[in-house]
Each structure stands twice: as C-alpha cells, then as structure tokens.
Amino acid sequence: MAVLNVNIDHVATIRQARRADEPDPVWAAVECELAGANGITVHLRQDRRHINDRDVRILKETVACKFNLEMSMADPIVKIAEQVCPDQVTLVPENRAELTTEGGLECANNLKRLMQVVKRMHKKHILVSSFIAPSEKQILASAEAGCDAVEFHTGYYANAVTDASVEKALNELRDARDIAAAAGLIIHAGHGLNYRNIEPVAKIEGICEFNIGHSIISRAVIVGIQQAVAQMRRLIEMNP
Ligand code: PXP
C-alpha cells in the first residue's frame, strides 16, 4: 500500500505572513504523524520563503516517521542536507519567481551535477528521489545518475480538464511507472493531488509514496490537520 507524506510548507507560509513564531511547522508535523502520516516533507528554498534552517534542524530531531527534504541542487542547500541527514531528499528544480515548484527536474541535461549530489547524499546514507516529468528520458537519466527513486510530477494530471486529457495523463503515469520499475527505481508521485483527484492515481500499482501539501493544509484550515490527514490517508488506503 502506498504511503502518504504530508508537505507542511504552507504551515510555515502562514507563520511567515507575520514573521511570527506561529503556527509552528514542528507542531504541525506531530499532529500529522498522530493522524497517520507516514512521512513529513518540507522544501527548504534558497529564499527561505517558508521553511527555514531552524525548522529543518528541529524536524530532523522530532519527526519519528520518514523525514523527506525537498531541495534544489544548489551547493549551500546540499551542504545543509549533508549536515542534517534527512531520511530522504527529493531533488527539485527551483526558480525564485515561481509560486510553487513548476516543472520537473531536468536530469538528462544536468547529469554530471545530479551524479555528484547523489554520491554526496549516499555517502550520508540519504535516499535520493528526483522530481521529474513522467518521461522516459528523465527516468533513464535519474537511473543513470544513481537515484533510488523518482517522484512523478502529477501536475499535468491534476491540471487536465477533459476526460480524454485526464486519461492521457494517467496513461503517461502508467507507462512511466513501467519504465521506472524496469530501471529498478522506487516510484513516488506528487503535486496538485487533492481529495477529488487522488483515487485514480492511488489505484496505479507500483506508486508507493505520495507527497501532498496544498490540498491537505487547505482542508486543515477548515476541519483541523488531524482530520485532513486522516481523510487523505483513507482515500489512499481505499484504492490500493
Ligand atoms: N512534490 C514536490 C516535489 C513538490 O515540490 C510539491 C510542492 O511543494 C509537492 C509534491 C506537493 O504539491 P502540492 O502542494 O500541490 O500537494
């Protein structure tokens, strides 16, 4: 059965709206775990717009389930990962002007750098996942670089509006799953997944980890974070 990592960046976004000390993402992580989250994900951005160094340090000490650090391959951030040693890093592209991670990592054209980062993470026994478009080129480059896992960008699926485009996006994910599995990669998925669109993706055999943030934290504002996490967990469990 697939596991659910909750991305709690938005909790820090609310805190940063007032440059205050609440809500604390560390507290949010505990509540997510109590509600059944299998992992906690945060993105330490170079501009520190939400999650900061203190959060990452304390989360490493306090998260009892999987701690997944999303990050770019910029050297200062890679050095922090080497110091903090999360259970997993998910390598993402980062553009300072973007509202959220926009596209997948360009692995094929950055193979040398990707290989260096993978090697440095493996030296610290950190699992490496690359956040990529579900394309053969990027999957094979991730495998060549030595990544342990790939996270398929589900934004294309989430943004599809017609039945035909939804089905096309699901087929692309299934094809990508086959290629990644044949290359020996662990398969994750995330971005744009919500309570309405998770089920068909949760049904894709072989995807073993979901990273979901915006929709869970949005629902948490209304119903509370434990209920929001437990509801998403149930939807994943019901569609093994
Ligand atoms: N996976 C990756 C690599 C991401 O960058 C993000 C957004 O931070 C997510 C998953 C979660 O996306 P969403 O917030 O749309 O659920």
Measured by DSSP, the beta-strand proportion falls in 15-25%
Give the C-alpha Rg: 17 Å
- What is the terminal-to-terminal distance? 6 Å
In CATH's first tier, which class applies? Alpha Beta
CATH architecture: Alpha-Beta Barrel
Number of helical stretches of at least 4 residues:
11
Q: Tell me the number of structural domains.
A: 1
Main sheet strand line-up: 1-2-3-4-5-6-7-8
Instruction: Give the topology string: H per helix, E per strand.
Output: EHHEHEHEHEHEHHEHEHH
Q: And the CATH topology?
A: TIM Barrel
**Which class of secondary structure composition applies to the elements?**
alpha/beta
Bound compounds, each kind once, are: pyridoxine-5'-phosphate
Mean pLDDT across every amino acid position: 96
